[in-house]
Design goal:
This protein has 157 residues and is an alpha+beta fold. It folds into two domains: 58 residues, Arc Repressor Mutant, subunit A, CATH 1.10.10.1400; 63 residues, no CATH class. It is built from eight helices and four strands, in the order H-H-H-H-H-H-E-E-H-E-E-H. Helix 1 crosses helix 4, helix 2 packs across helix 3 and helix 5 packs across helix 8.
C-alpha cells in the first residue's frame, strides 16, 4: 500500500466520505470521486479500512451490539414508564433503560407559580424501523416507492 493510499484510509475514517477523503489525501478534486471508487474497490484498501474500524471500535467501546442495544432502548421505551402525566415530570422510578429514550428536558419558570415542562423522547418509529431493517423484517414487503403496478390482461383476444 502506498503512503497516499494509507492517507486515504486514515482520512476515510474521519467522516466515511470517500470523495472528501481522496481530496484530503492529495488526489485531484476533479477526479476524486472516480479515484475514491477505485480505491474502495481494492481488496487491500478494504482490508485496511476494516482494520482501522476494528481498532476504532476497540478504542471507543462502540460495537454493533452496543448500538443495537441503545436502539432497542429507544424502540421499546414506553412514555408512560418515563413521564408522569399529571405534572409532566420524569418519574423517579424510571429505569436507566427507559431514560435512555429521553432526548431532551426543558423547564421554563414563569413568575413564582408558573412552570412549563417539555420532555422530548427520541424517535421511537425511527428506532423501530432501523431495528426492523437490521433483522430483515421488511424484506419482501412491497414498497410503494419501488414496486410498480402490475396490470393483468385477461381480456380475450
Amino acid at each position: 500500500m502506498t503512503d497516499k493510499q494509507e492517507k486515504f484510509c486514515q482520512e476515510y475514517m474521519i467522516d466515511l466520505n470517500a470523495t472528501k477523503a481522496a481530496i484530503r489525501a492529495g488526489y485531484s478534486p476533479k477526479t476524486a470521486r472516480e479515484q475514491a471508487a477505485r480505491l474502495l474497490s481494492k481488496v487491500n484498501i478494504q482490508g485496511r479500512i476494516e482494520q482501522l474500524q476494528a481498532e476504532q471500535s476497540r478504542r471507543t467501546g462502540i460495537s454493533a451490539d452496543r448500538v443495537l442495544r441503545e436502539l432497542a432502548k429507544v424502540a421499546f421505551a414506553n412514555a408512560g414508564d418515563i413521564v408522569d402525566a399529571d405534572d409532566a415530570t420524569l418519574k423517579e422510578d424510571a429505569s436507566p433503560d427507559d431514560l435512555a429514550a429521553v432526548q431532551s428536558v426543558k423547564v421554563k419558570v414563569f413568575g413564582e407559580d408558573g412552570v412549563e415542562r417539555e420532555i422530548k423522547l427520541a424517535d421511537k418509529l425511527k428506532a423501530l424501523d432501523l431495528l426492523g431493517r437490521h433483522i430483515g423484517l421488511f424484506r419482501g414487503t412491497p414498497n410503494a416507492d419501488t414496486e410498480g403496478v402490475v396490470i393483468q390482461d385477461d381480456i380475450p383476444d
